[in-house]
Structure formats: C-alpha cells, structure tokens
C-alpha cells in the first residue's frame, strides 16, 4: 500500500524540530565576549554577559528556558502547554518555519533560539539585525539534555540545568522494563501523510526508554526525514502491533480517521491486534507533536503508562 509523499507544511515544521545534533561545549575566555558558546552546528557565539533579551522560535526551547528561570521577549505563534501559560502574554513572532523579521527586530533580542535544520538559512538575517542565532535540535532525550546544559551555560544557570538533567536521568532509571515487550507502531501524521517513527527519532527514543518494541525499527529511513520511514500496510499487518500510537501537531481526530481509512484498504487490517482491541491511540501533541523540552519526563510518564496497561 502506498501513501502520499506530499508533506504538509505544518508536518515539515514539526519533524524538523528534531534535527540531527552534536555535542555543544561551552568556553569562557577572551575575545569579543567573555562568554563563548558553541551551538549544535559547531558555530561559536560570543556574549559580553548572559543574554537578557531572548527570543525562542519553538515551544520546546521556550520550555527549557523557563524551566531554568529565564524569560523570553518573543515566542512562537503556537498553543502553549500548561507549563508555559505564564508566558502567554509574551509577543508572538511567527513560527520556526516562518517568522516576522520586523517584529523580531523591534524586540531587540540578544539571541534567537532556533532549529539547526530549519533555521541555518536564517543566520545572516538575524545577524543583520544585530543579534545572534543559537541553533540546537532534539532527536533523543540525550539531545534535550544537551540543550538543557547549553541553555544553562547561556543563562548562567548551570546548577539548575544540572538538577534538571539529574531528574531526567533518575526518571529514566526508574522505568521498569516489562517482561513482555509491547509491539508498538508510532505514527507521525497529518491528513493524507503518515510516517513511522524510527529508533533515531525522539519519539522512537522515548519508546525505547519506556520499554516498548518498535515494529518499524528495521525499516529504511526516508531521505528527507531520516528519523522516519514510509508506512507499508502489509508489513504492519505482518508485525501485528499490540499498540498503535499517533502523533500530530493539530486535528488529531482527522489524522486518526484518515490513518484508519488508509489502512482499511487492506482487508487484513481488521485482524491487527491493536485494531481488534481498540488500541489505536492519539498521543498528547504538546509532548509528542514536537520537542517537549523540560517536560520530557511527562512524555516518558505517558508512554510508560500506556505500555504498562498491555504488558501487565
């Protein structure tokens, strides 16, 4: 069964929010600024002091910023999770995919937090208004922890960053691996477009940490989105997942209906365990539709809870 190759603009945005990353060491020393930070692209940014006027282009970055005691003068035009409701009045500046340069200029930011894959092309634009762009990404929980450490150095909040990372490490250790692995398919979708999350994606990593078995782990990666694979209905039916989890940024009911309609084109679909037992479920979009940032522990909690229901 073939699926559409047309990737909707919103889907492109959310997938790229978890791009490939590298370690981000921090240096303090001489030069144009006393604080020197190397972002995930390997670029070194210099500041005379910890930036005070910060713009975040994604809710994930904003989540970490606020968890460490920082604040933003500009935020993405997006629905905020409960943990960020106190920032609701902050000026919106568009999205990571397309932001308002004039608005950003008027806010006079010291630094703009962007995504490595989506915003590399915007470095010159941000530098042209007298600011700097710090690029990160998140394809795993470890990547999120690198972001936390990096933002901690940026804000001068290293102790808070270490404490948050310690909490995440402790939560991972607390996960009790089930005796029986729950065969799971994690799907990222928008109406008409559905992809399976691979182990090298953030959601795939979260599934592994929570103790699930990813039935798509050996599928070939898509060229444009190497953290995901095209879904093949025949292979899904053969693998017979116990649980199918749907991730989406918006319109979850439409995404679920569209996915079920596509899969039902194969008569054997009704025999899949997850379908027979009503285990095709939608994950919370603030935890799985994008990088959850400092709320990554909640994402682990959510997956562990769903897997335990089937593994006990």
From TrEMBL:
Gene3D superfamilies: Nitrogenase molybdenum iron protein domain
Keyword Aminoacyl-tRNA synthetase: no
Annotated ranges, domain Fe/B12 periplasmic-binding: 53-311
UniProt keyword Lipoprotein, yes or no: no
Pfam families tied to this protein: Peripla_BP_2
Cleavable signal peptide: 1-23
One GO term (biological process): cellular response to iron ion
Sorted UniProt keywords: Signal
Domain of life according to the entry: Bacteria
Family: Belongs to the bacterial solute-binding protein 8 family.
Protein name per the record: High-affinity heme uptake system protein IsdE
Species assigned in the record: Bacillus safensis
Name of the gene this protein is made from: isdE_2
């Amino acid at each position: 069964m073939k699926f559409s190759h047309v990737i909707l603009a919103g889907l492109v945005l959310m997938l790229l929010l978890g791009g490939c990353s590298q370690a981000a060491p921090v240096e303090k020393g001489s030069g144009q600024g006393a604080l020197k930070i190397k972002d995930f692209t390997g670029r070194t940014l210099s500041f005379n002091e910890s930036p005070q006027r910060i713009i975040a282009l994604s809710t994930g970055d904003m989540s970490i910023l606020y968890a460490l005691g920082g604040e933003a003068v500009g935020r993405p035009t997006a629905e905020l999770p409960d943990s960020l409701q106190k920032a609701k009045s902050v000026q919106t500046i568009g999205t990571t995919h397309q932001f308002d340069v004039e608005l950003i200029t008027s806010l006079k930011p010291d630094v703009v937090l962007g995504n490595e894959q989506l915003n590399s092309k915007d470095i010159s634009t941000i530098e042209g208004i007298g600011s700097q762009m710090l690029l990160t990404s998140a394809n795993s929980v470890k990547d999120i922890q690198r972001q936390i450490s990096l933002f901690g150095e940026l804000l001068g909040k290293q102790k808070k960053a270490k404490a948050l990372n310690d909490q995440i490490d402790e939560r991972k250790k607390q996960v009790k691996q089930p005796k029986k692995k729950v065969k799971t398919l994690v799907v990222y979708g928008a109406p008409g477009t559905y992809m399976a999350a691979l182990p090298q994606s953030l959601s795939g990593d979260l599934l592994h940490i929570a103790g699930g078995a990813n039935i798509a782990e050996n599928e070939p990666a898509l060229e444009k989105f190497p953290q995901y694979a095209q879904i093949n209905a025949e292979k899904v039916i053969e693998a017979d997942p116990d649980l199918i989890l749907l991730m989406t940024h918006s319109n979850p009911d439409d995404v679920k209906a569209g996915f079920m309609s596509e899969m039902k084109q194969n008569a054997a679909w009704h025999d899949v365990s997850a379908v027979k037992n009503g285990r095709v479920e939608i994950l919370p979009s603030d935890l799985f539709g994008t990088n959850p940032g400092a709320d990554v522990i909640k994402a682990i909690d959510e997956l562990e809870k769903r897997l335990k229901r089937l593994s006990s």
